[in-house]
Model the fold of this input.
Amino acid sequence: MAEAVCGTAAPLRVIAVASGKGGVGKTNVTANLAVALARRGLRVCVLDADLGLANLDVVLGLTPAKSLLHVLRGEARLADVVVEGPAGIRVVPAASGFAELTRLEASQQLALLAEMETLEHELDVLLLDVGAGISSNVLWFASAAAETLVLLTPEPTALTDAYALVKLLATRHGRTDFQVLVNMAASAVDADAAYRRLARVAERFLGVRVEYAGWVPFDDAVPRAVRCQQPVLLSAPGTPASLAIGRLATRVAGRPAGLPSGGTQFFFRRLLADAAVEGRA
Ligand SMILES: Nc1ncnc2c1ncn2[C@@H]1O[C@H](COP(=O)(O)OP(=O)(O)OP(=O)(O)O)[C@@H](O)[C@H]1O
Ligand SMILES: [Mg+2]
Done:
């Protein structure tokens, strides 16, 4: 708790956790990063942006009655679906098995942004657990966040898919800064090599800066924690994965927000304006 900067007037940081390839650990890293940041005294919310295949609630052992589905159908406000998770984090659950969520309409994006804006003054950090792939939802959520944490594993397929995601965010959405976390690595050397491969191609072919956010080792404690539906950081705090996520949280908390000029408010508003234009087109 003590390392915290709590309740300051700092603007809300919105960080999307994305990957391209599925199954690289986005949901687990997001959930545990949220817990680690909350334990540093930050007011944290995690939004399950993997609409249609949501499982953040499962990883956190929650059984929410309502979800983003209700918000998107206009049946509930965002504040009504937020539930409290471990370590006092707030969680916005989504629904699984609803094809209608797999491609948000412009009007739904608009409504969701307006709802997200209502949380702005209650939070320090909003983490988005973005789905795998490069669907319109993925690109929209990733571009709605001012910061993008791209996850990959040392497998070449994860590198290819992470590059595809970075490419689309850079070329279509003008993003130039990315943070990269290598998950499930066997060693620091393996992780560093994976990061360097991505950084090299991203810089050379896209001219974007890809910064190293660190690595999380492959650790059996993570799937064990998933089976118990508890964040590994709480169920097995001393394990290598938990310690690595703790280091990631320290880095994230200590990093300048990297917001576009005008702060989050401006950022949401610009997106609202973009969505309105697209909706009319
Ligand atoms: N550091 C790790 N060490 C070992 N296993 C891990 C680690 N991180 C994640 N896993 C395991 O990898 C699997 C996928 O994790 P997770 O669901 O977080 O990935 P994801 O990227 O969110 O997947 P999806 O793309 O389907 O949303 C889970 O079984 C989880 O237990
Ligand atoms: Mg996931």
